[in-house]
Structures are given as C-alpha cells and as structure tokens.
C-alpha cells in the first residue's frame, strides 16, 4: 500500500466584509471577519509518477483538474521551495460549493499544502506554510488557520479571534457560481454610480466592527445577527437579482440574519439553534429559490490531518 495523507479543510462565511477603495495593485483593502463552518473538503495525497489531480463530489465537474487548481499550485509551490518534484496524486473530495463565496478552492490549496508537507516530511514551519498560502490567494491563509480571524490587507494578514460559543447556520447554495473579481468590479461600479462619478476614492478605510467582535467573543447569536455586514452583497444581488428572493425566504422563515456569503452566490442564514436551522432549511427548500440547502455550525477548526498511512 502507498503512503497517503488526508487533510480536512473547512468552508468559511464572512460575518463582516468591509471593502475599501481599489489599491494601485488592483486589490481592495479589507476588514474581513472570517468564521470557519462545518462544511469540509477532504484532500488526500499519495506518491505518483507526476502531479495529477482528481476530484469527487456533486460539483466535481466544475473543478479544474490542471495546474490552475489551487491544490496543484500549493504542491508546486512547496516542492519548488524545497527543491523537489511535486510527484503526487491529489484527490479532492469536494463538499464545499464551487465558486460559491465559501473559499472552496482556497480550502483545497491549504489542504494540499499541509498534506504534501506531511507526506514529503518537508517540516515547513507554520510561518512558511502561511507565507505560501498568502502567495496562493487572499483567503488561503484563513483556510489553514480556521476558527475565526480578522483579515486585513487583501484579507491575508490574519489576527485570530476568540469565539465564545457555537453559531448555527443554514446555507442556500445557488445554481451556478459568481466570479469573485466580477463581484468586486460590480461593487466599484455601484459605488461610482452612487457617488455621481466622484466615486471610489471617497470610500472610507474598512474597519472591523467592535460590536461584531464582541458578539463572536461572547457567543451571542442575536448580537452577531445585528452586526453582520457584507459590502459585496449589493454587487452580488445586482449580478444575480434572484438572490433577493432567497434572502427573503430565509428571513421570512425566522432566520436571525440573512446575508450573501462573501462574493456569493451562496446565501448564509444565522439561526438561534439547530431546530430553528431545520425549520429555515425546510422553508428555503420549498421556496424553490436555491439548488440545495445545508445546515451546519461554526466555529470549525482549520486544515487538519485526519489520516496518515505509511507504507508497510
Ligand atoms: P472565495 O470565497 O475565496 O472568493 P469561491 O468559494 O467563491 O472563492 P472557489 O470555489 O474557490 O470560489 O472557485 C473559484 C474558481 O477557482 C473556480 O471557478 C475554479 O475555476 C477555480 N479553482 C481553482 N482551484 C479550485 C479548487 N480546488 N476547487 C474549486 N475551484 C477551484
């Protein structure tokens, strides 16, 4: 039997996504409060002749299996730094919606990185792994760290946050994805229009909400519901107007808060407890406004090795 390592990595929801103006490098400065939730991809690596990616799960057909896959890029980056070949088969068992604003690709990048490090015995420090994650993408460091964190810069400069209780969530998965860059561009366009053309330069510095950080720390779902915000929501709804009906269906069924998850089109509903979650999930299913519904909770741990088989 070949040696193998399997890593489990969570999805995220942004409980606050404050978006600043466009920077000279094209990115936006953010105050991005990530919460990891219990939907997971599992990334398994085994030695192979050459780098190869396979994927299973309901959305597997939408996942690129070439060198553009974030898991492949992670393996190549680690191998290059340690002067070795990325001779590995990476299998992604995908449960996180693809292009759904839940950092599914980022999760696979962080998962592959941790898995290859363990398989190859690279012994990379946490700092080096976080460094590679930040090179791979803005959301990748959080997938490694998990639980909850404030992301500054373009989201990659992380400060871990304390979470004082379990938050219950329902996610409504939409048909098809939304491109994250397209949603940021639409956000800029809407700001330009509402600023009468004087626009994006006037956007205030994004700052985390003290009330929101406090609600996370104390585990107070009602207070968190009152504080959640997503500056990309108007842009996501502008590009996908049908999301308004999904948000209304969840709110009408008693969700404490309804918001677009990150750049969407997945929508997130904060609920009081698991029973309330099932009620909101039933209402969303019968509303006909989404493709599927998931009930889960957070905070969830970051990328974790869950299986390691060594050769006999
Ligand atoms: P985020 O929330 O970080 O903005 P997302 O969850 O909206 O991201 P992803 O699921 O990461 O979106 O997919 C975005 C695009 O990234 C996909 O359309 C796909 O082409 C590409 N991609 C690269 N690697 C992966 C991967 N391992 N899994 C899914 N998509 C990937």
TrEMBL record:
<dbReference type="GO" id="GO:0016114">
    <property type="term" value="P:terpenoid biosynthetic process"/>
</dbReference>
<dbReference type="Pfam" id="PF08544">
    <property type="entry name" value="GHMP_kinases_C"/>
</dbReference>
<keyword id="KW-0808">Transferase</keyword>
<keyword id="KW-0414">Isoprene biosynthesis</keyword>
<dbReference type="InterPro" id="IPR020568">
    <property type="entry name" value="Ribosomal_Su5_D2-typ_SF"/>
</dbReference>
<feature type="binding site">
    <location>
        <begin position="97"/>
        <end position="107"/>
    </location>
    <ligand>
        <name>ATP</name>
    </ligand>
</feature>
<protein>
    <recommendedName>
        <fullName>4-diphosphocytidyl-2-C-methyl-D-erythritol kinase</fullName>
        <ecNumber>2.7.1.148</ecNumber>
    </recommendedName>
</protein>
<dbReference type="InterPro" id="IPR006204">
    <property type="entry name" value="GHMP_kinase_N_dom"/>
</dbReference>
<dbReference type="GO" id="GO:0005524">
    <property type="term" value="F:ATP binding"/>
</dbReference>
<comment type="pathway">
    <text>Isoprenoid biosynthesis; isopentenyl diphosphate biosynthesis via DXP pathway; isopentenyl diphosphate from 1-deoxy-D-xylulose 5-phosphate: step 3/6.</text>
</comment>
<dbReference type="GO" id="GO:0050515">
    <property type="term" value="F:4-(cytidine 5'-diphospho)-2-C-methyl-D-erythritol kinase activity"/>
</dbReference>
<keyword id="KW-0418">Kinase</keyword>
<comment type="function">
    <text>Catalyzes the phosphorylation of the position 2 hydroxy group of 4-diphosphocytidyl-2C-methyl-D-erythritol.</text>
</comment>
<dbReference type="InterPro" id="IPR014721">
    <property type="entry name" value="Ribsml_uS5_D2-typ_fold_subgr"/>
</dbReference>
<dbReference type="GO" id="GO:0019288">
    <property type="term" value="P:isopentenyl diphosphate biosynthetic process, methylerythritol 4-phosphate pathway"/>
</dbReference>
<dbReference type="InterPro" id="IPR036554">
    <property type="entry name" value="GHMP_kinase_C_sf"/>
</dbReference>
<feature type="active site">
    <location>
        <position position="12"/>
    </location>
</feature>
<keyword id="KW-0067">ATP-binding</keyword>
<dbReference type="Pfam" id="PF00288">
    <property type="entry name" value="GHMP_kinases_N"/>
</dbReference>
<dbReference type="InterPro" id="IPR004424">
    <property type="entry name" value="IspE"/>
</dbReference>
<feature type="active site">
    <location>
        <position position="139"/>
    </location>
</feature>
<dbReference type="InterPro" id="IPR013750">
    <property type="entry name" value="GHMP_kinase_C_dom"/>
</dbReference>
<feature type="domain" description="GHMP kinase N-terminal">
    <location>
        <begin position="69"/>
        <end position="146"/>
    </location>
</feature>
<feature type="domain" description="GHMP kinase C-terminal">
    <location>
        <begin position="213"/>
        <end position="288"/>
    </location>
</feature>
<keyword id="KW-0547">Nucleotide-binding</keyword>
<comment type="similarity">
    <text>Belongs to the GHMP kinase family. IspE subfamily.</text>
</comment>
